[in-house]
Each structure stands twice: as C-alpha cells, then as structure tokens.
Amino acid sequence: MKLTTIIAALRERCPRFEERVGGAAQFKAIPDAGKLRLPAAYVVPSDDAPGEQKSQTDYWQDLTEGFSVIVVLSNERDEKGQWAAYDAVHDVRRELWKALLGWMPDPQGGEIVYVGGTLLDLNRYELYYQFDFTAKYEITEEDTRQAEDVNACRIYPC
C-alpha cells in the first residue's frame, strides 16, 4: 500500500491537522526529521502479515498490510487547568475513522480497518498516540517472478 495516498487523504479529510501530516520510516526518526507544528500526524508503515500460499500450481497468498497514524497533540493545560489532550484523542480517532475506515485506496486491495491504538508517550507539553490500521491484499501470480518466467517461456520456449 502506498502511504503517500494515506497521507494525502488525511491532509484533505482531517481539518484539525491543517495539512500537517507527514511520513516517517519509523517513529524514532520523527524528532530527528524535524517536528511539524502541533497538532500533527505521521503515517508510518507497520507489520505485514502474510497468510499461507493457497495454490499448488500458481501463486495465491493473502497479505494483511499494516500502517499506523501517530498523532502528536499539545498536552498543555487548558483554561480550566485540565489536560486538553485527553479528550482530543477521542476526537482525533473519530476524524481518522471518517477519513479512512471502509476506504479502499488500492483497487486490488481490501478496505481499511481499525485494529487499535496505544499511548506512546506523554509529557507536560505533548501527547503521542498511535492508531493502527490494516488492509487486506491478495498476492497473485501477476505480482510474482513466476508470471514473468511463464510469459517468457511463451515467447521464447524454455
């Protein structure tokens, strides 16, 4: 799955971030890459979970591709002296759901589903929260070397 498509969708459909949505190869690289103004979101790849090869004659395998949206929110106290980020996590999750759930960014893949979230870090100034999503994809012969080899044998007998 191309994460640039996810980033573009979040920039368009999540007004809270005011287009402050970026990508990062891994979360630890975010501070080194330079932070966006808050609130901000970063789309990062996560686990791929392949299924068993389902065919004995060609290639057919399920793949669950994962990605995460890490949001960084201001955790400064509001005018009531409360930590404003606590309720903001709920609101951000709702925006992310409306932007992503049920959408099929890849015509050959499945729809995006939500698989959970977790608090990554919390200090007096910032709250880091990770929302995890997956989409199913089917790897077929056309995605493999096998297809190229078979097609080559049709042109140049093996």
UniProtKB/TrEMBL annotation:
Taxonomic superkingdom: Bacteria
Record-given protein name: Bacteriophage protein
InterPro entries: Phage_JBD30_tail_term-like
